[in-house]
Structure formats: structure tokens, C-alpha cells
């Protein structure tokens, strides 16, 4: 069963190496070394780490920025010519991996795993979906076999599609045919053949359509020399053998740090959320802090080899679960199979068409765009969560990955402030028997005592929302003077109360006020004073010990 997972690792590694800006063989190394180190320190039994599209994309951006900087400074006397002459993209990628490991280990040492609580599912999902659009945009030219200029900066996705469309007449016919056939093969296999086989023969192991596609297209490409006869681009040189360890380029550590911070944020958010979800589903415990140590050590040790940063891949992890894996020991067998590929079988993939890898990447990301029901649920459940998803998606697609991530996190934090400063509040009324109280606006058939208003404030009473709290209390008082409560259009007098009364009461349900600060205490005192001057008695119910 482990072969299914390793097939995913092999081809995702080769495919995503292009996103990282390095040669395909380094994708194999990246799927081997970190996985081997991670399994010794991990507490998650199912997380499968390796190449991840979003992290590879961010690595490619870091590679471009750092290589461009050093190329521009090549005549600067403060930088040695030896460093410039020997600096290559894989050296930047492996050094970046090493720095990512340091940041992850430091996060565990400083107990910063709590930060992941602020990375809501909507933020992470919107960001990853937006990044997936950028990944697809980066693959379109390979699918069509057209040459387009490299573009960077904001609106990369739109610029890329525009450049591809402007050059579509120059598409390589052979590449387009192979791409269309590959799309059709994977689509029909996954959506029609696999469900039928599973239902008919009760086979739960996913059929490796990617492996079948790669074998067939590589054989056709090699047999008919498609690269030489029709100009179709292929993977090219994949040397056999293990790489030697290498020392990180310490002179670019500071250049790597900003990129490492953003990459680490994505890795931790995806990894911890996936680990917690599977641990809960499979009924075991994980240690989030130990997971940070495991990620850090695997990246630091892996960074001593020519690899690029890796992360938990959601699709590959679910394949790992479906394949029956129960411990990280499965990773050992996966590494053994990958070792065989690295030592002996790698050169067999040299004739693999690049367009096939692009198709595999796009099809692997397809599920991220099946969001109609998910977004509908967000709309009905929480419009703020929907807005968080949209902000993360739009800023990532419209700007770039790093800016999109930063803006998304800032916006998510602002929603916490927004919810705290303008919390929900409700006017309650007793149900039949007066044992429970419900929202008077939601249950309009309920009636309340005419001289008693029960008010619930759904938030801690803190300095940002004290003015809002006092305004809500004043609104309750004004509803009497106006003779009509704005929270109930069909209030009826209860038979057990007098029609007129000299005393009126506001009861504050404090069950949702979990904490109160000094300004909150002062706000309560002011509310008591204001209500008393208007011949209204203010009472507290269900107050906790924090009062």
C-alpha cells in the first residue's frame, strides 16, 4: 500500500521542482531526506510531508528575488566574486530550507504553536486556493508548449494568462495533443473508472493513474523522439546516485529570513491543522510543540542536502490514510522505494514530457476549486468568515503569495477586533414555563414582561466595546419611553403582570461575559447610575467569578 503514497511523492517532487526554480532531480531528493528525518521525531502518525505546490511556489519566488539581487550586485566590491560565481538556485533553495528549519525549531522552543489558532480554516483555505490559481497560471504555458516572458509582481496570474493567450497561435501541436489526452485520461480515470472499480470489486486502494500516464507518455516520447522531431519539451537530465552533503550559504541567511518566515507560517498552519484533524478522526493525541521540533529538525538536516522546503501535502496525506497507513513506519518503506529511484531508475524519466507534469499538477489542484457548497455554507453560517476567505483569495491572486498571506493574517486579526468591539446582543423572553429564555427577535411568538427587559451581551466586557454596551442599555431604556420596543413588534402583556407599574427592571444575562476589565466595571457602574436616575433597576444574572 505504501507504493501508492510514494508514487505521489515521486511525481509531485519532479513536478513541483519547476515551481521551486530547480532541476527535477532535486524534487526526488526533497521527497526523500526530509521524510526520512521527520519520521523519527513526529507525533502525527499520518501526515505525509514532501513537495507542496504553495510552498514550492513561494520557494520559487524567493529564489528569483535572491538570485536577482546577487546578480545585480555582482560588481559590488563588498560581495566576493567566488560567492557570486558559485551561487545557484539549488544553493538558495537548500539554504532557505535550512533557515525554515531554524524558524520552525525556534517556534517550538518559544512555544509559539498557539499562533496557529489565529490561522482560521477560512484564511488557510482561501490563501491556498488563491495560490493554486497562481500555480495553474504558471503551468499553462507548459500545457500549450508556448514560450512566454517571465513576469513578476502584482497581478501575476492575469499577466501570465494574457501572455499565454497572446502567444496561443504559436502553441506546440504535439504538446497540446499530449496535454489533452493526459487531461482526459486522468479525468475519466478518477471520476468514472475508479468509482466503478471501487463499487464493483471493493478495491479501496487508489489506482495510480499518474504512474500509468507517466509510463505511457515517457515510452512514447522516448520511442518517437518527440523532443527532437516536434520540439516538445522534456524533463531532461536526471543523474543517478545520492548527492553529497553541502554547507548552507551563510552569506545569504538574512536574505532568506523574510521568505522563511512566510513559508514557515504556511507550513505550520497546514501541517498542524491536518495533524489535529487526523488525530481526532483516528482517536489519538499529537503534541503540536513536538511537531514543530520535528519539522524544524527535518528541514535543518535536510537543508544540508540539495533540496527545497517541503510541507504536509493534503492530498498525499489523505492517500496515506486511505492506503491503510497507521504509523510513520510507512514512510521508511516509501523512502526505500524512492531510494531505488534515486540510485538507479531516475534516468528512465528523462524523456518524460514537461506538459504531462503540468497536467498532473493542475489535476492535483482541481479539488481546491470545488467550493460552491463550502462558500454557500459560509454565507449562511458566518459572513465574516466568508469575507475572510474572499480577502485571502483575492489578495493572493491579485497581488502575490507573500503579500496575500500578510494581508490575510492582518484582516483575520481585525475581524477579531471587529467581533469584540461590536458583539452581538439579544433581548430575551421566557418560553413556556419560564424555564428557558430565547431571542425575542428570532422567536416573535414569545412575549415578555412589559416592565422587565432581559438583555444578553455576547462578549467579554472590555474597553473596545464598553461604549457599545452602554448604548445598548440606553436603547433598552428608550424602548419604554417610546412605548414600543424595537426588538419585538408583537409583544403582548403577560396575564400575571399589572398593566402599569412604577418600577422597571433591566436584567443583564452575564453568562456570555467571560471576562471584564476595569473600563468594563466602570461601564457597569455608569449603567447602574443612569438606570437608577430613570427609575429603572439594573440586575445581573449568571455572573461568573471574574466579576
Description:
This protein has 547 residues and is mostly helical. It folds into two domains: 416 residues, no CATH class; 119 residues, STAS domain (Transcription Regulator spoIIAA), CATH 3.30.750.24. The protein has 21 helices and seven strands. The chain has a five-stranded mixed sheet with strand order 4-3-5-6-7, with helices on one face. Strands 1-2 form a two-stranded antiparallel ribbon. Helix 20 links the parallel strand 5 and strand 6. It starts with a helix and ends in a 6-residue tail after the last strand.
Our Rg estimate from Cα atoms comes to 30 Å
User: Based on CA inertia axes, which overall geometry fits?
Assistant: elongated
Strands ordered across the widest β-sheet:
4-3-5-6-7
Helix vs. strand class: mainly alpha
Mean pLDDT: 83
Describe the protein's topology.
Elements: H1 2-20, H2 25-30, H3 33-41, E1 49-50, H4 53-72, H5 81-86, H6 89-109, H7 121-144, H8 156-166, H9 173-201, H10 209-224, H11 226-230, H12 253-282, H13 288-302, E2 311-312, H14 314-322, H15 329-345, H16 354-364, H17 372-381, H18 383-398, H19 401-421, E3 425-430, E4 437-439, E5 452-457, H20 466-481, E6 504-509, H21 518-533, E7 536-541
Parallel strand pairs: 5-6, 6-7
Antiparallel strand pairs: 1-2, 3-4, 3-5
Helix pairs in contact: 1-4, 1-14, 1-15, 1-16, 3-13, 3-15, 4-6, 4-12, 6-12, 6-13, 7-8, 7-16, 7-18, 7-19, 9-10, 9-16, 17-18, 18-19, 20-21
